[in-house]
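Model it.
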Amino acid sequence: ASRPVLDEAATTLRKFPELNIEISGHTDSAGNDQLNMNLSQARAEAVKQYLISKGSDGNKLTAKGYGETQPIADNATAAGRAANRRVELKILE
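Modeled.
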């Protein structure tokens, strides 16, 4: 379900090659802290590699894992945990 969104992001990045982007990976609070950091970093790296495969400039992309440190929803519910398992793209100055 995320491929169309990533394809759209790749198209935008090709149109604006001057943009520097942080790709941030996140997890829910299940599992231990180190596992979640590794998992979130792997998520961010996977998105970076996908964007590169679609023509984005890898030198303009930074992948960073945040683990469970930046939740956007309550980890006490299944829906909240699902929302916290995410990757975000942010334009850097």
